[in-house]
Amino acid sequence: MRKLVIQEIALACREQGCFQVVNHGIRKSVMKGALEAASEFFKLSKEHKEKFVSADVQQPIRYDMSSRDGISTARSLLKHYANPLEDWVQFWPINPPTYRKKMGDYAVEIKGVSMQLMEAIFEGLGDKVGLAFHSDYGFITILLQSSAGFEVMHHEDDTWIAVPAIPGALHVHIGDNLEVLSNGQLKSLVHRTILNPDEPRISIASIHGLSMDEKVHCAKELVDEEHPEMYKESSFQESLDLLPSNMNNYKRFVESLKIDRDE
Ligand SMILES: O=C(O)CCC(=O)C(=O)O
Ligand SMILES: [Fe+2]
Question: How many domains does the chain have?
Fold first, then answer.
């Protein structure tokens, strides 16, 4: 489970540069308290806040409303050092009276979360893509995996989803042949594999299709006026023949079978 989360974080960092965390262990009351403390501070009168105004960006506490940093266009800012708390809390506002306690609790807990996240991100840095993204040629592929690492691309938004390796379970996915046979009702799955530097991974991929030269075509029952044939027929042999030319600029084999009906 830990490994899976590490891989999801690694992936989010690589592909999106961001992610959101739930079940991080910070109590709801602490989060709510910190937001309340900040909100109450900004509601104070100008005189209360302006005590902290300084042009020196290195001050341990600084309140600002103008655009000295070149990026703040319309915001008020209260910036202060926080950890270790005992060094800095003396500089914090005493108004609102709960500020130090509420913001202090949050500062301590968020530091703990940050340390855990950094550890997870560092650990995930070692993971490399072992098998680049592709779809399989046959009707279905069945995987027997020793550990996690397998990832699938979401049909709609092209994001990667880590598939857990459930002990005793077989993973099944759809290949190009089934996309053709179903006349596009089913889509072949784009997938890839991420390596785990600490643990060798074995996966037995059984790809099930027709014999080498037998052609797969759209099922006649699924083709009519409204649903014209969407793919050219092809054989396993033909898909293998195309493999070398597909190496550098990968696209699903089934893309090359699509019948262009735009004219
Ligand atoms: O590493 C895996 O589990 C998947 C292997 C695979 O996608 C393939 O051999 O086509
Ligand atoms: Fe595959």
Answer: 1
Is 192 within the bounds of a domain?
Answer: yes
List, for residues 123-182, the tens digit of each pLDDT value.
887 777 788 888 898 999 999 999 888 999 987 877 888 888 889 999 999 999 999 999
Full-model pTM: 0.61
Is 262 contained in some domain? no
Residue 127 domain-assigned (yes or no): yes
The b-or-e profile of 14-46 (16+ CB within 10 A means b, else e) is: eeeeeeeeeeeebeeebbebbeebbebbeeeee
Instruction: Choose one of 203, 204, 240, 246 to mutate for the ligand 1 pocket test, by most ligand atoms within 8 angstroms of C-beta.
Output: 203
Domain extent, residue 39, equals 2-257
Task: Give, for ligand 1, the residue of 128, 140, 144, 150 to mutate: max count of ligand atoms closer than 8 Å to Cβ.
Answer: 150
Average pLDDT over residues 77-89: 94
Helix (H, G, I), strand (E, B) or coil at 212: coil
